[in-house]
């Protein structure tokens, strides 16, 4: 089974979920804005993330409005602290298999990940 950290308001996140479902794979959906990850959960995610840890943080207007800089997210611990406090800053979607995860952006990364790491639901 896969898990997707999902924001239904994000078109890329919706497309990633559709790609997983189209592959016939069982998927657990975590709406991370409704159920934010705590610091330890973010650290655990960073441990299995194939992408660079800093890629998990969105450097958007909210990041700037909060007065954050690259120095505020330059270690896994700082990233975990920021994302636990401000879950809107987490890049989405994140697709998680048992022991590996990717940021599903661009969405064309999702299908190969699903193919490699998941079996269709029976």
Automatic annotation (TrEMBL):
<protein>
    <submittedName>
        <fullName>Arsenate reductase</fullName>
    </submittedName>
</protein>
<dbReference type="InterPro" id="IPR006660">
    <property type="entry name" value="Arsenate_reductase-like"/>
</dbReference>
<comment type="similarity">
    <text>Belongs to the ArsC family.</text>
</comment>
<dbReference type="InterPro" id="IPR036249">
    <property type="entry name" value="Thioredoxin-like_sf"/>
</dbReference>
<dbReference type="Pfam" id="PF03960">
    <property type="entry name" value="ArsC"/>
</dbReference>
């Amino acid at each position: 089974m896969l898990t997707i950290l999902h924001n239904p308001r994000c078109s890329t996140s919706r497309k990633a979920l559709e790609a997983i479902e189209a592959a016939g794979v069982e998927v657990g959906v975590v709406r991370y804005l409704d159920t934010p990850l705590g610091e330890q959960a973010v650290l655990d995610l960073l441990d299995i993330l194939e992408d660079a840890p800093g890629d998990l943080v969105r450097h958007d207007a909210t990041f700037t409005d909060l007065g954050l800089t690259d120095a505020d997210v330059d270690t896994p611990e700082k990233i975990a602290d920021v994302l636990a406090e401000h879950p809107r800053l987490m890049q989405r979607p994140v697709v998680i298999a048992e022991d590996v995860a990717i940021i599903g952006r661009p969405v064309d990364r999702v299908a190969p990940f699903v193919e490699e790491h998941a079996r269709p639901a029976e």
